[in-house]
Amino acid sequence: MRKTVDNVEKACEGIESGMTLMLGGFGLCGIPENSIAHLVEMGVKDLTCISNNAGVDDFGLGLLLQKKQIKKMISSYVGENDEFERQMLSGELEVDLIPQGSLAERCRAGGNGIPAFYTPAGYGTEVAEGKEVRDFDGKPHILETALTADYAIVKAWKGDTEGNLIYKGTARNFNPVMAMAGKTTIAEVEILVEAGELDPNEIHTPGIFVQRIFKGEKFEKRIEQLTVRKKA
């Protein structure tokens, strides 16, 4: 089934205020840049965003935070965004911080139809408040529920017209598990080829999980923290 759409505007049709979105990426690596920029233009508000982090102040999800379009963030790491910090401390933004492994597993569980699972991560901290606790082999575990979204928006290096995706290096990060957990999954890619041109053994996300795919117009690929070694 051909799943290509002409542009980001077509890909994001149907996204409305108040929806829950999953957005792939880690830091600024592997984020769906074109889609995020278009969400800003769309002006949708009261969004619940599930993402490893909230970008930086002037890029990634930070652009949506600037416009006060996000109501709640479900994240693991948020240390690079001053506006995020300000909104969280002022009570303008609801925040659910989750251990990174638990966040990945909750997304994976959602994509696999697993409603919940037990994990020791977070026991004895605020993460465990209000959650069921059960002992396994004498060790306490907390019950974590699966995460799903109205739309999952991911970024891949290469994809084909049937929605099969290949990620490049560390840009894979949260993208594969989130691609599985959206009711509708949108993939923006750098390279778009015809069906049959990808080696099946190299595909990371099968096209069955993707409903829309488009070729992004521009990828800035910013570096979040650049550290270089001084010359001797």
Your description of this structure?
The chain has 232 residues and is α/β, with parallel strands linked by helices. It has one domain: Glutaconate Coenzyme A-transferase (3-Layer(aba) Sandwich). The protein is built from six helices and eleven strands. Strands 1, 2, 3, 4, 8, 9, 10 and 11 form an eight-stranded mixed beta sheet that branches. Strands 5-7-6 form a three-stranded antiparallel beta sheet. Helix 5 packs parallel to helix 6. The chain is globular and about 50 Å long. The N and C termini lie far apart (57 Å). The model has no long low-confidence stretch (mean pLDDT 95).
Strand % is 25-35%
* CATH superfamily grouping: Glutaconate Coenzyme A-transferase
Number of discrete helical segments: 6
- The best one-word shape is globular
Low-pLDDT parts are none
Helical fraction: 10-25%
Q: Biggest β-sheet, characterized?
A: 8 strands, mixed
Distance between the termini: 57 Å
CATH class: Alpha Beta
- The secondary-structure class comes to alpha/beta
Number of strands: 11
Number of domains: 1
CATH topology-level fold name: Glutaconate Coenzyme A-transferase
From the alpha-carbon coordinates, what is the Rg to the nearest angstrom? 18 Å
Average pLDDT, rounded to a whole number, is 95
Keywords: Transferase
InterPro entries: 3-oxoacid_CoA-transf_A, CoA_trans_fam_I, NagB/RpiA_transferase-like
GO molecular function: CoA-transferase activity
Pfam family, one: CoA_trans
Topology:
Elements: H1 8-11, E1 20-23, H2 33-42, E2 47-50, H3 62-66, E3 70-75, H4 82-90, E4 94-97, H5 100-112, E5 116-119, E6 133-136, E7 139-145, E8 149-160, E9 165-166, H6 175-181, E10 182-193, E11 212-215
Helix pairs in contact: 5-6
